[in-house]
Specification:
This protein is an alpha+beta fold. The protein contains six helices and ten strands; from the N terminus they run αββαββααβαβββββα.
Length: 174
């Protein structure tokens, strides 16, 4: 099963249930690149930013959860603590920052489940980006917050990650 989820079309495992990733379209692709660039610029040399990065967030005993973040950030020391390059290729934890871009075909219940999984399985913060609404839902251990066009994101848990929501969507066609 592991080999099949690592091949296109990509499949995620949500608490033991296989869910095929939605094929990205134009807006999704543009936003994914823009958000990854913003996170990388703000992160500096703190860690690594990647797109379509798979994480194997399994409790011992078998594959229950494996998610492919649209954009993910992992602190350097956390990734290097895994040891070998082979181990780093399949991180057995949630990214420190997970960002999912909502696609029209995504089931809201699956996206919400993923946001909570990212946080409860070791992540610090998870973002559900809603391109159609130009909003970002922010999930932390303490709360869920929805930000819109005139809002600024800032969080004590990741003090280096501060941005204006409007900057994520600037120039994105309707």
């Amino acid at each position: 099963m592991l080999q099949s989820i690592d091949e296109k079309p990509y499949t995620e495992i949500l608490d033991g249930r296989a869910v095929q990733k939605v094929s990205p379209k134009t807006i999704h692709s543009i936003l994914q690149f823009r958000i990854a660039a913003i996170v990388q610029m703000l992160a500096g040399d703190r860690g690594f930013v990647g797109t379509e990065w798979r994480f194997y967030m399994d409790p011992p005993g078998g594959l229950q959860t494996s998610l492919v973040s649209d954009v993910a950030f992992v602190y350097s020391e956390r990734l290097y603590a895994l040891g070998s390059r082979e181990q780093r290729e399949k991180p057995p934890f949630s990214p420190d920052i997970a960002i999912e871009l909502r696609s029209p075909g995504d089931k809201p219940s699956d996206v919400e489940w993923k946001m909570h999984a990212y946080i409860t399985m070791g992540g610090t913060i998870a973002f559900d980006v809603l391109p159609e609404l130009r909003q970002v839902c922010v999930y932390t251990h303490d709360a869920v917050q929805t930000l819109g066009h005139g809002d600024r994101f800032a969080c004590d848990a990741v003090p280096w990650l501060v941005f204006e929501v409007r900057d994520l969507f600037a120039g994105i066609p309707d």
